[in-house]
Amino acid sequence: MLKLSKLTDYAAVVMAQIARYPEQAHAATELADAVQLPHPTVSKTLKMLVRAGLLESRRGSLGGYRLARPAASITASDIIGAIEGPVAMTECSHADGDCDLVATCGVADNWQRVSLAIRTLLDSVTLAHLAEEAPLKLPVQLPIQSVTLASRAEV
């Protein structure tokens, strides 16, 4: 199964919470309470997001965490990359990839195309989109959206 880690999911939840109130600085404990996650998990996530340049952190009584840039210019790909590393389907699908089978596999080019399609979609979804209460309307129309599945009764 291809899925993101819980920490990446939590990072998106925390970032969305901050994006909903961008004018204020957010304390780690306040964020943990707001999103109902353990404080140590939120603290770890915040540090990773600061290290990736997505959040800014200030100490002191007026301190806390703020977005490093507007929510509309932070992408889902940025958030995933901050926690997971580069988005790629296979080892050969990203710039630093190293694969022993590259000369004989015969599918590298197609995996790279799949990775590019996924990155393009993730780059088109912003933190502003994720922070909205309304269901996300994908900015990109994918061919898979027109596929209809057979009902279980027909199987």
UniProtKB/TrEMBL annotation:
GO terms for cellular component: cytosol. InterPro entries: ArsR-like_HTH (IPR011991), SUF_FeS_clus_asmbl_reg (IPR014290), TR_Rrf2-type_CS (IPR030489), Tscrpt_reg_Rrf2 (IPR000944), WH-like_DNA-bd_sf (IPR036388), WH_DNA-bd_sf (IPR036390). Coiled coil: none annotated. GO terms for molecular function: DNA-binding transcription factor activity. Pfam families: Rrf2. It comes from the Bacteria. This is Transcriptional regulator, BadM/Rrf2 family.
